[in-house]
């Protein structure tokens, strides 16, 4: 029988989050096993570190919460569109296999959720692992931007490239008052005192960081993702003070300690704060980082700032992928991008070199072992999800 102590651990992992938003996270996790997996990253690493069955792998900079929907489009400071890993809140120095193990487990769960057979799912996991290993063996990081994209990724990049940035502003602001954010079930209103204080603090930050010509005019509490729901996260509306009165939206997300803290066995750098950690890992692993990526301190808490753009998007698996062949091509790209992030950051701040990764890629039977473990972990998640959903339905997480 499954030990139900993990329910208490879920509560413990989320106890410092905004309680109103946390209800939305718990509800999202009750949707299906894959969504539950996305919302329980700490459980995954506690299980992995306690029962690690694989060969040793070189230390690298990892995303930490690498799963099949944690990739997407964004626009860099050069205004070009890229497709890459897009969430580094859990990023740390850790064994190279940890990233690809979590990604493989997510493929197993996502494919089962979509309805693929066991044979089809096994082939998809092996495709991901093959291209991850192949890219490490080549020793060269790969970039996916608009001209290099293909398949589902190309369709996504082309689709979001056609959208107008002014449409994003219109969609997120009131029709009768475009200087006010539109309050929805994904954007909570802030009290007047909190909003005033936040805007004042953000405008001072803009001034101190030489963002001349920009002024914050409104803000709200933002709900996004699954695992991060409940952390303090703002959407800030800014206006250029020059001609045209053009507007800009920034995502401002509080950064908590990584779920992997103390578990990796690797000596971490002495970061000034958690936001500096996230931004540093992101800049090391991505070829180009999102526009306005920076660190912001507010009320003794540290936040990562980046532009919210019309070109920020991701693959919704249940809607976009209907055939195994479509997913196979997509996963080949995810394997390439995952290895590219490890290669791009190799030799940095304690990470293994590209030669170390090449030697690792060509030794051992870890591909088969990771594929096999993803099956057993997916079965555990299914059991945990059944218990969780029952407990959630009975109000356990409202106590």
Can you give a write-up of this model?
The structure is a single chain. The protein is α+β, with helices and mostly antiparallel strands and 399 residues long. It folds into two domains: 5-162 and 318-398, no CATH class; 165-270 and 293-307, no CATH class. Helix content is 47%, strand content 14%. The protein contains 14 helices and ten strands. The protein has helices at residues 5-14, 19-29, 33-38, 41-50, 96-114, 118-138, 151-161, 165-172, 192-208, 274-285, 317-320, 324-344, 354-361, 366-393, and strands at 59-62, 71-75, 81-85, 92-95, 187-188, 214-222, 233-240, 247-254, 294-298, 301-307. The strands form three sheets. The chain has a six-stranded antiparallel sheet. Strands 1-4 form a two-stranded antiparallel sheet. Strands 2-3 form a two-stranded antiparallel sheet. A hairpin with a 5-residue loop joins strand 2 (71-75) and strand 3. Helix 6 (118-138) packs parallel to helix 12 (324-344) and helix 6 crosses helix 14. The longest helix is centred in the last third of the chain and has 28 residues, at 366-393.
Keywords, please?
399 residues, alpha+beta, 6-stranded antiparallel beta sheet, two-stranded antiparallel ribbon, 10 strands, 47% helix
Could you outline the blueprint of secondary structure elements for this entry?
Layout: H1 5-14, H2 19-29, H3 33-38, H4 41-50, E1 59-62, E2 71-75, E3 81-85, E4 92-95, H5 96-114, H6 118-138, H7 151-161, H8 165-172, E5 187-188, H9 192-208, E6 214-222, E7 233-240, E8 247-254, H10 274-285, E9 294-298, E10 301-307, H11 317-320, H12 324-344, H13 354-361, H14 366-393
Antiparallel strand pairs: 1-4, 2-3, 5-6, 6-7, 7-8, 8-10, 9-10
């Amino acid at each position: 029988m499954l030990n139900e102590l993990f329910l208490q651990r879920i509560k413990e992992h989320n106890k410092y989050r905004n309680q109103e938003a946390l209800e939305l996270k718990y509800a999202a996790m009750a949707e299906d096993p894959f969504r539950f997996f996305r919302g329980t990253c700490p459980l995954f690493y506690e299980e992995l570190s306690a029962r690690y069955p694989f060969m040793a792998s070189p230390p690298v900079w990892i995303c930490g919460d690498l799963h099949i929907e944690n990739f997407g489009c964004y626009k860099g400071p050069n205004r070009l569109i890229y497709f890459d890993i897009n969430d580094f809140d859990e990023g740390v120095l850790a064994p190279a296999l940890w990233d690809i193990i979590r990604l493989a487990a997510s493929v197993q769960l996502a494919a089962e959720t979509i309805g693929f057979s066991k044979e089809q799912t096994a082939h998809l996991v092996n495709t991901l692992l093959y291209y991850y290993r192949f890219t490490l063996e080549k020793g060269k990081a790969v970039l996916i931007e608009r001209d290099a994209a293909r398949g589902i990724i190309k369709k996504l990049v082309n689709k979001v490239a056609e959208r107008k940035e002014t449409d994003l502003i219109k969609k997120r602001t009131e029709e009768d008052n475009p200087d006010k954010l539109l309050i929805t079930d994904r954007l909570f209103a802030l009290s007047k005192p909190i909003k005033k204080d936040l805007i004042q603090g953000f405008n001072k930050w803009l001034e101190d960081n030489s963002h001349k010509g920009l002024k914050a005019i409104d803000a709200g509490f933002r709900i996004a993702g699954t695992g991060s729901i409940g952390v303090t996260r703002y959407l800030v509306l800014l206006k250029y003070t020059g001609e045209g009165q053009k507007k800009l939206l920034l995502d401002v997300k509080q950064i908590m300690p990584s779920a992997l803290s103390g578990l990796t066995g690797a000596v971490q750098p002495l970061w000034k704060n958690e936001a500096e950690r996230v931004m540093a890992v992101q800049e090391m692993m991505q070829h180009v980082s999102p526009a306005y990526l920076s660190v912001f301190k507010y009320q003794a808490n540290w936040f990562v700032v980046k532009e919210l753009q019309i070109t920020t998007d991701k693959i919704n698996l249940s809607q976009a992928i209907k055939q195994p062949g479509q997913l196979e091509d997509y996963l080949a790209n995810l394997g390439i991008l995952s290895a590219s992030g490890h290669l791009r950051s190799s030799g940095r701040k304690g990470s293994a070199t590209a030669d170390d990764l090449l030697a690792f890629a060509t030794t051992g039977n870890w591909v088969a072992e990771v594929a096999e473990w993803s099956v057993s972990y997916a079965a555990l998640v299914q059991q945990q999800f059944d218990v969780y959903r029952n407990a959630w339905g009975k109000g356990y997480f409202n106590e």
